Amino acid sequence: MKMKMKVFAVLVWIQLLELLLWVRESYTADQCSWRGSGLSQLQGSVEQVFLRCAEGSVEWLYPSGALRLSLSPRPMWAGLGPGMSSSSTPASICVKAEPHWSGAQLYLERDGVLELLVGDAPGHAHTRCFRVTPGERPALFLQATPHQDISRRIAAFRYELRGERRERLSDNSVHADSINTEGACRPCNDTEMLMAVCTSDFVVRGNIRAVEADSDLRAAVIKVSATRVYRQKFALFSSNGRLTHSGEIRTLLSCGVRTGSGSFLFTGHVHFGEAWLGCAPRYKDFLRVYEQAKQKLQIPCTLDTH
Q: Cα-Cα-Cα-Cα dihedral of 249, 133, 175, 214, to 10°?
């Protein structure tokens, strides 16, 4: 009898361990990203999730019930990069749904009001941005939509905070009030030009091979042949086996970028793995401004122009 009880106790512990492992596999999270399963949620419940980084991702398998995602990086604007942590400068938070998005709707929750960002219908997987100010605590509300079969439903998206400077040129599939289109297409002044060399995710010198329109993003895709890559975040510009590198840079379609001769200094930032244009002066114009600032000891950082 005692032996049977011991065997029974061992079997119970094994089943409990398997359950704990299943729950652990169905939910993983860190300060930046969250991955979980609706199968582990109580029906009709709302799970609270806190995201404390400037960028990350959310993946909700088999959506059921709802998630409330609080975006509260510590400190609030940490991670935005140099020149983007001013306590009075507004910023934007952007979310980009993955192509396989299905099974849920994503809302912005602000002042008790829900605003739809991404719907459940196919074709709604795009980028949406909204403006926030320091001190504001925005939240995202992810609501599962009823389906007979949830086995193939996955609601996944990436998010990132963008400072005022970083959203100067950004993808245009956003709210009209989240970006100043006129300011985005304005040529950089000398100060902006010099700062862009220091703070951009990529700095390359090259020529424009072609410009193509991406109707889905409402963006212009600039095909660049780079003769020199000063700096790049990720492998944006790959070597073609010769002395040049090739890559793509996106900008607002409304800026009317066209193919032109001459050498340019391309700078900008990476958004969701894609290069977006910041300042792009002709190289000779940049060189003139850079040398003048260098003589006056007013350059914010150095660049090897030889």
A: 10
With contact defined as beta carbons under 8 Å apart, do 65 and 38 qualify?
yes
- When pLDDT is cut at 50, 70 and 90, the band that residue 295 belongs to is very high
Cβ atoms of 280 and 197 within 8 Å: the answer is: no
Residues 6+ apart with CB under 8 A from 7: none
CA–CA gap between residue 75 and residue 84 (Å, rounded):
13
Query: What SS3 class is residue 27?
Result: strand
Whether the Cβ atoms of residue 68 and residue 109 lie closer than 8 Å to each other? yes
The span from the CA of 169 to the CA of 219, in Å, is 11
CA distances in angstroms from 70 to 32, 59, 67, 110, 259, listed in the order given: 11, 15, 10, 11, 43
Q: What is the pLDDT of residues 91-104, one digit of tens each?
A: 788 898 988 888 89
User: How far is residue 207 CA from its own chain's centroid?
Assistant: 27
pTM of this prediction? 0.67
Q: Yes or no: say if 143 and 252 are a contact pair by the CB < 8 Å rule.
A: no
Q: Which of 140, 138, 174, 133 is nearest to 157 (CA)?
A: 140
Per the listing, tokens 């001013």 go with 86
C-alpha distances out from residue 25 to 99, 153, 158, 283, Å: 24, 17, 21, 52
Q: What's the order of all strands across the beta sheet hosting 104-110? A: 46-51, 66-71, 139-144, 104-110, 113-118
Of residues 126, 168, 130, 162, the one with CA closest to residue 277: 168
